[in-house]
Amino acid sequence: MKSNKQRRVEIKARRRQRAAVPATHSFKPDVRLPRVGAYASDDEPADRSVLLRYNNTYGPLPTFYAAQPFVCCDCGAQEVWTAKQQKWWYETVHGHIESRAVRCLACRRARRERVRSAGPGANLLGEQTNRLRALGETKPTEKALAEVDAALQSKWWSLRVVAIQTMVRWGDADRIEKLKAMIAARPEGGRRYWSWERVAADAAMCALIRRE
Asked: I need a surface site. Which of 60, 91, 94, 212 has the fewest CB within 10 A?
């Protein structure tokens, strides 16, 4: 049986060993933030006005896009996410600014094909999201209103946000009043700050601002 002194010696030795090994998951600063000096020839400027409309983040928005190497999470291939691809993803498709490329082109295509061949219901969230967005392009009917109300009770918060965006696209007085009620009920602090009510209020405010 080891004494307390021996254990302390072993603990200190292990700490010294860990300190001597460089961290494999060390923090990497965002290369897209403002920097001193000239930009690379393949960098792309970022349109912050577009990013502000489609991103709700506490972090700084990039001033440009730079090529980012990554390893495909499926096949392990070494790939590069080019600056032009990033600009298209963030400013045309409106992907979230914190999202990153994780799969190579071949694996992305294979994954889409697997989902497509699996038949209806394999990507239920995506199907319902597309359905709600399509409803936003048409006039609201009783059936459409019922679908949106059901989506607001979904377990997926992202689907609820799309339902709120659909309500804004319709723009009728009843929907706008309901959205304003969500904004008025926004919690400002306490445990409820991280609740759905805050997310709903923020989504409603962003959607109404874009509509204007």
From this structure: 212
